Amino acid sequence: MSFSSLGLSEAIVRAVTERGYTIPTPIQTQAIPAVLSGGDLMAGAQTGTGKTAGFVLPILQRLSEKPAPAQHGRPPAHQPIRALILTPTRELAAQVEESVREYGKHLHLHSMVMFGGVNINPQIQRLRGRIDILVATPGRLLDHVQQKTLDLAHVEILVLDEADRMLDMGFIRDIRKILALLPRHRQNLLFSATFSDEIKALADGLLHRPALIEVARRNATADTVAQKVYPVDRDKKRQLLAHLIQEKQWFQVLVFTRTKHGANRLAEQLTKDGITALAIHGNKSQAARTRALAEFKSGELQVLVATDIAARGIDISELPHVVNYELPNVPEDYVHRIGRTGRAGCEGEAVSLVCVDEHKFLADIERLIKRKLPREVVPGFEPDPNARPEPIQLRSQEHQRGRGPGRGAQPRGEGAARAPAKPQVAPGGGRRPGATPAKPGGRPPVQHRSGGRNR
Q1: To which H or E segment does residue 125 belong?
Q2: Which of 155, 162, 239, 383 is 20 to 30 A from 110 via CA?
Q3: What's the predicted TM-score (pTM) here?
């Protein structure tokens, strides 16, 4: 099957071909016709399956074949935003908007990316021109709404990308506020790597008779990723990681830690070991994060040490190695982490350095993915069989000590978090005629914080 057979125009197919793609992936084969039909969509797909093109391409097609409705009193440059794509992090927003520009380069459509951690004034200036497709993080979007620099009253298509992560990060209240600003009649597309009960509740209030696509078993890991566990004592992890990188001559290694402090410390230690490494997390400036990611993509940087939230949106073709320096305490995060490699049919390797403290985390992960991961003990790094587990400081504990947020919160610089809440959709949140609107009863008023936070 070809992209042209899916109903895409010659201009879009030409842009896709110029990026080196000729055969659509399974999620694209199913999602593109579904979006082109104009109906709502709920799609589940592992990261790296090509889901971004699965909604970007048909959105470009729909907007290009139907001109924007004329708005009386508006000059042509100030036509309203027609498609809104919400993402949980800056990196993912930038990645998605880059795809919009690349795939739409032969069309007369204009896009913009909007996120926090940078000066808001250039964004305000840009909004004075024509923007057909806006890619944004929820917090900064609401900053613009508060300053009355943004009009969402004519959005035709809404996309919630990585909806599961947005709920994990406490964005449900922001999402509800945004939904209340959108027109009732629109197309809604929800993409999620996992379908939790919370995601289903959000979908029930947002989507009307959606097409349902799930191209991979829920919470499954990609078959193209070779997974392995290296048992090791907690105080020998850094030496083992350096040994593996140097002995196996690994390059472009994405390493995960649980905390921002741990990411900084590990990057500094690896650099002292002669391995070029930088950390990327919410306390880093946007300029520093962009620079580190660019050096990692180009191959100048051997190791990028990241926290879970900062790594969302890292899309590197043929990324060969992902290392769990510390296992996540939430097993679904393991699936997200190793999904950074083995993308789009390429092979990848995901290894985990596991000490006695993390045995329960490992058991939870294996229960989730329904497989036992192979173990390999490296000579010279044999774990002490008499070692006793010690309590692990989780992100929520780190937050209580004033170092950063816990699960369900957002690091400063990536968007202020709200406490997780049960997904509820504001009245008018995407229901079509004849559907029963969500009821507002019993919901406490939501206060939108202003000032003193970067989104």
Answers
A1: helix 121-127
A2: 162
A3: 0.60
